[in-house]
TrEMBL record, chain B:
It comes from Thermoanaerobacter pseudethanolicus (strain ATCC 33223 / 39E). This is Glutamine amidotransferase, class-II. The active site is at 13 (for gatase activity). It holds the Pfam family GATase_2. Keywords: Glutamine amidotransferase, Transferase.
């Protein structure tokens, strides 16, 4: 192989006045950036390997380390950017598809940040959530059109199975394999503590976590990993994964070297074998096939569990969602194009799909125009970064949101986008036992609980400001939103007015 | 400036309601005196009344009260009306010239029943048929607005102070068993008569003091059931929700009240197993019908009225009883003005409905006193 043309992306700055040669950085870095030079009696760094995960920066006892973007540039060119040139070097060297992780990092407009929220003044008193009741509970599932009661007020309506969420937030699908055992342990326990649900992703359900069943959504994806009757019946709900926002239209691939004994048992595949999720479900080539799978799963669980369908936000998302609703799904999860992933081809991640803001608005409008919106639940996913995003998502038409990247950041993720290497220094996106043990689930679950509780407090404050004391009254309440810096077309699709209107 | 219906206008208000539970008829003077006491709660930009039992001679006919901007709108409306209804009587609603009511539109009323062959063809019942007719006129004929469509009842409203509106419509000459009144304080000057209260659809009339923070959620929910919200007012939405719950879903009024001012989850947790199932189902199914935000409102239907606050009582509402007469109003003064020595006067808690119905053989009291307040 010829000389690599790639230069370091990051530069490690070490303050030698502060460095005490303790070698913590060396031991912490799975990418082998730091080493100790005995002749010089000092720590040195190989910038080439650095991914800017900042594990060394945070753990350095004397704050001797800083990682900066490497100052080396190319001759400035507005078209042939730094990334564009380097991607070509990389592909010319390897002949391979470029891999990346986490969500789309391109500078597309973030529509959440072009939407502002209303508050009450004079004509409508704002409500102080510390002094007045404020309800965040939502139920995810299929709803009857109306209640039927007899003359003695006994309910005759047969309520389809529902998921009860004490706050309209769930942890989105991340498989055991893409993230670690300890990450799953933290998510499951946090979900139980918060009265919400976490999603196993498509990698099966580890036997240790079956005890969290009532707070668990299990996925059935195209690889069918870990799916058996017990798996389905342990969970509170089942989700058919059709697509994922980070990589719509393609499948997944967990390399054999990551398939440890434990993962092999959980996924129900031989150890060391590649875990391939085909791009489509090979028993779903059309909507009627989806209906069959939905009802197969309902049959397998005696109609006791909601069966949802997760799709990526793509051009025709509204019509697809309508078909899913009519195929019998209890909820639809829609994952926007900024949604995260443990590994995706970079070009797909960065170029395929549409923003969740438009997708949720379009789906909600479509289902309303068909008069079926109130019968089904809608979950928005694909880059919910804070509580304001949640308020905006629900006002645009979602019933609840899924968060995943935010949850991982709460666990310590520093967004270096190297999940696909399996070398996560924070013990999250790795199966290396020495790395996994860095993530303490005991601490991790508390951080997750803190995050969701903090967001819930903020949601209550925003609701109170709007003069609302129940999250139900925010659903589809687009009059509470205004747009800034958008075209009329964008405003129309979002179904909101411009600020000042 | 945009006309009401194209823009949302928050308002403050005065409301009042009186019923004689025996069904005895009394003139519109009492309700006028009551609402006039609260003159300062409105600003002269909207006043109105709903009167039940005023058209006994035509009690089986829909009584349509219509505002027209011009004769073209009238002609177009009457073409549709007469193609679909047998009209027993049409006339100008009698008014009296007063100094304080200006820019009156043409105001007509029609007593009509659907033509049997049209009704049969539509495969609807006469109520659904009539709702469709009203929505059609109000959304498709510019300058025409049907503001009252019930039987043996009528709404009278205008831009002005309520006592002037009563004078304008000669309400002292009508006799009803139940009256609602409203004085409006909108936050800008739409000057449109249709925007005044009460809001009416078939036999349901609503007067409302408040602003619904949940307006858009409620509106979109109703649209899924075919309601078209032409006015962008909170009151319109409240009226349709009661129509949906009472008439189309057949809920008893007590439960309809528990939808629009639902008990909190922590209260549901404390209920008996049977009630818990009922209220959990009710909240899950009708979450989007919860009326959220500050309000006190009176909803009248054939059998009586219900007065109710939002569940944390952010607007005033007082009730009183004397014999078979039940009074509700924004302020106690408005009751004492027309009922000197009430047997009892009370301030209902948030979400606790005051239900006053005509006396019938089998009284149902089960849910009328249940506490809902947080």
């Amino acid at each position: 192989m010829s000389l690599s043309y790639l230069t370091p992306e990051f530069k490690v700055l070490r303050d030698y006045d502060k460095c005490i040669n303790c070698k913590v950085c060396m031991r912490q870095c799975s990418f082998e950036v730091h080493s100790y030079d005995e002749h010089l009696d000092k720590m040195i760094s190989n910038d080439m390997n650095c991914v800017n995960c900042q594990r060394c920066v945070v753990l350095c006892p004397t704050q001797a380390l800083t990682i900066i973007k490497h100052p080396q540039t190319f001759k400035e060119h507005a078209n042939w950017t730094y990334d564009a040139i380097r991607d070509i070097y990389r592909q010319a060297e390897t002949g391979g598809v470029l891999l990346s992780s986490m969500g789309n990092d391109r500078p597309y407009p973030v529509y959440w940040d072009k939407i502002v929220i209303n508050a009450s003044q004079v004509t409508n008193p704002s409500i102080d959530p510390l002094r007045e009741p404020m309800e965040l509970r939502v139920y995810i599932g299929r709803k009857p059109d109306k209640i039927e009661i007899d003359e003695n007020l006994n309910v005759k309506t047969k309520m389809p199975p529902q998921l009860k969420l004490e706050t309209p937030i769930m942890f989105s699908a991340m498989s055991y394999g893409s993230i670690s055992y300890n990450a799953h342990a933290a998510l499951a326990r946090a979900a139980e503590e918060l009265g919400i649900l976490y999603n196993t992703g498509e990698g099966g359900l580890h036997k240790d976590f079956r005890k969290y069943g009532k707070n668990t959504i299990v996925q059935v994806a195209s690889g069918r990993f870990g799916v058996d009757r017990e798996y389905l019946n342990t969970a509170a709900a089942i989700e058919i994964k059709i697509g994922q926002g980070a990589k719509p239209g393609i499948g997944g691939h967990l390399p054999g070297e990551k398939v440890s004994e434990d993962i092999s048992a959980t996924r129900m595949i031989p150890p060391g074998s590649d875990a391939i999720s085909p791009a489509p479900h090979h028993d779903i080539y059309s909507i009627e096939d989806l209906a069959q799978l939905i009802y197969s799963l309902k049959e397998a669980t005696d109609y006791q569990k909601p069966v949802g369908v997760k799709i990526a936000a793509v051009n025709n998302v509204a019509a697809i969602a309508s078909g899913i609703a009519r195929a019998g799904a209890d909820y639809i999860a829609i994952d926007g194009f900024r949604g995260g992933t443990g590994a995706a081809p970079k070009r797909i991640r960065d170029n395929v799909g549409i923003p969740i803001e438009f997708a949720i608005a379009a789906v909600d409008a479509r289902l309303r125009s068909e008069g079926i919106r109130h019968t089904i639940s809608l979950v928005a996913a694909g880059s919910i970064r804070n509580s304001a995003d949640i308020v905006k998502a629900i006002a645009l038409g979602a019933d609840a949101v899924y968060i995943a990247t935010a949850a991982l950041i709460a666990l310590g993720c520093h967004m270096c986008q190297k999940c696909h290497t399996g070398k996560c220094n924070w013990g999250i996106a790795t199966q290396d036992p020495n790395l996994v043990k860095r993530l303490n689930p005991e601490i991790g679950y508390k951080r997750l609980v803190n995050l969701v509780q903090a967001w819930s407090h903020e949601i209550k404050e925003m609701l109170g400001g709007m003069g609302i004391n129940d999250i139900e009254s925010l659903k589809g309440n687009r009059l509470m939103l205004r747009g800034i810096g958008m075209t009329q077309k964008e405003l129309d699709i979002l179904g909101i007015l411009a600020a000042g209107e | 400036m945009l006309k009401e219906g194209y823009v949302r206008i928050p308002s403050g208000c005065a409301i009042s309601g009186i019923i004689d539970r025996t069904g005895r008829l009394f003139s519109g003077q009492s309700i006028t005196d009551s609402i006039a006491t609260m003159h300062d709660r409105s600003n002269g930009l909207g006043g109105g009344f709903a009167a039940y039992g005023i058209y006994p001679d035509f009690k089986d006919y829909f009584a349509f009260h219509v505002f027209y901007d011009d004769l073209i709108a009238k002609q177009e409306t009457e073409n549709i009306l007469k193609a679909n209804y047998i009209v027993a009587l049409e006339e100008k609603i009698p008014t009296r010239k007063t100094a304080h009511i200006k820019n009156a539109p043409l105001i007509y009323r029609y007593f009509a029943i659907p033509k049997p062959e049209k009704l049969k063809l539509s495969e609807l019942d006469e109520n659904e048929f009539t709702i469709k007719f009203v929505f059609n006129i109000n959304s498709n004929i510019p300058g025409a607005y049907v503001f009252s469509s019930g039987k043996n009842m009528g709404v009278f409203k205008a831009v002005g102070y309520p006592e002037d509106v009563a004078n304008f419509y000669k309400l002292e000459s009508y006799k009803g068993y139940m009256w609602l009144a409203h004085g409006r304080f909108p936050t800008n000057t739409p000057g449109w008569w249709g925007g005044a209260h009460p809001f009416n659809l078939l036999n349901i009339s609503v007067v409302h003091n408040g602003e619904l923070s949940s307006y858009d959620t409620n509106r979109k929910y109703l649209e899924e059931f075919g309601y078209i919200c032409t006015l962008q007012t909170d009151t319109e939405v409240a009226a349709y929700i009661f129509d949906l719950l009472l008439r189309r879903h057949g809920l008893p009024i007590e439960l309809a009240c528990k939808v629009v001012a639902s008990p909190l989850w922590k209260q549901v947790e404390r209920m008996s197993p049977k009630e818990k199932i009922l209220y959990t189902n009710l909240k899950i199914i009708y979450g989007r019908a919860l009326l959220n935000g500050p309000f006190s409102m009176i909803i009248a239907y054939e059998d009586g009225f219900v007065a109710i606050n939002d569940r944390i009582k952010l607007r005033p509402l007082t009730a009183a009883k004397k014999g078979d007469m039940i009074y509700v109003a924004s302020e106690e003064s408005a009751i004492r003005q027309v009922c000197k020595n009430p047997e009892s006067v009370w301030i209902p808690r948030g979400g606790e409905p005051v239900i006053a119905e005509l006396i019938r053989d089998n009284e149902k009291e089960m849910y009328s006193t249940k506490e809902v307040t947080a």
